[in-house]
Design goal:
Blueprint: H1 26-45, H2 50-57, H3 61-68, H4 76-86, H5 95-100, H6 106-117, E1 118-125, H7 136-144, H8 152-165, E2 176-182, H9 184-187, H10 193-207, E3 212-217, E4 231-236, E5 241-245, H11 257-273, H12 277-289
Parallel strand pairs: 1-2, 2-3
Antiparallel strand pairs: 1-4, 4-5
Helix pairs in contact: 2-3, 6-8, 7-8, 10-12
């Protein structure tokens, strides 16, 4: 049975956004190029020319050329089909593991790598819930409403990357995770009322974890240290740290101790100004019960 998708069988071989290789991602490009060479070697060893292989695969010739040239990330189903056509006995299917992370944009991989090393995370969010707190439905709604619009493949990749980052909650030993969220992020019905309801229920579940604290910054607060926008601080076991503030230092990640102190100071003040964790969970329950 042909397992190729409709878009990849398109005789025009149009590129699907989100599966092309980022030229600035040297590590990812090297992994994709290696996979492409293996696929080409297996095809040539089988005595198949590209048109013959493409026909057997059920894919356009253009896609085969791009995959083998390392210019396109092969889909998992492409690898499975190639393994079947070329009789590779699982070797080509096994490339899925090597390519899994490459599917995610480099900046997302870098962030996930930092979170995987962190022993402490403090984050303040003002427009929407922090990515680690989001349900799949909520995250999909956020990506779908982006303007300019994202292609479905880009949304798929972004969701997969965000889901992978959530392994931070299951790490042993567990890192200390602290989130401060503006009240409006609990009330704005991103994706609709039912999506928001399930999102609030998820927050209550996360808030019960011993290593997770969720605090709410009430809209009625007159004094607020977070008016410069979102911020986050990640601390690591070796004593180093990285911070980012939307309104300071160009919004880029910084590690300079003097600059970090500014962000840490603000995060500390925001935590003091927000509702305590217990009060915050009660507040979320209250919002959940509202019509």
């Amino acid at each position: 049975m042909n397992t190729a998708t409709v878009s990849e069988r398109d005789p025009g071989d149009a590129d699907e956004p989100g599966w092309e290789v980022d030229p600035d991602d040297e590590q990812g490009a090297a992994v994709v190029a290696t996979a492409g060479r293996q696929l080409r070697s297996w095809r040539e060893a089988a005595g198949l020319r590209v048109p013959e292989f493409a026909e057997a695969m059920g894919y356009g010739e253009g896609i085969v050329y791009k995959v083998e040239a390392g210019k396109r990330i092969p889909r998992p189903e492409y690898l499975d089909r190639a393994d079947e056509v070329l009789g590779a006995r699982g070797i080509l299917s096994g490339l899925k593991e090597d390519l899994r992370e490459v599917r995610y944009p480099k900046k997302v991989r870098d962030l996930a790598g930092l979170e995987a090393r962190a022993v402490e995370l403090t984050a303040y969010g003002d427009h929407n819930l922090h990515g680690l707190l989001q349900t799949q439905e909520y995250a999909q709604a956020l990506f779908t409403m982006r303007r300019p619009s994202l292609a479905s493949e880009q949304i798929e990749r972004a969701l997969a990357a965000r889901t992978a980052r959530k392994s931070i909650f299951d790490r042993v030993p567990a890192p200390s995770l602290s989130f401060i969220q503006e009240e409006v992020t609990l009330r704005r019905p991103i994706g609709g009322k039912m999506v928001l309801r399930r999102q609030l229920e998820h927050l209550l579940e996360l808030g019960q974890l011993r290593h997770v604290e969720i605090q709410v910054m009430p809209t009625a607060r007159e004094d607020h240290a977070g008016m410069s926008g979102e911020m986050q601080v990640l601390k690591f076991g070796d004593g180093s740290a990285i911070g980012r503030s939307e309104g300071d230092f160009g919004g880029r990640p910084i590690s300079d101790p003097k600059q970090l102190r500014v962000i840490e100071l603000r995060c500390g003040i925001i935590r003091a100004q927000a509702l305590a964790p217990g009060e915050s969970l009660a507040f979320i329950e209250q919002v959940l019960g509202e019509p």
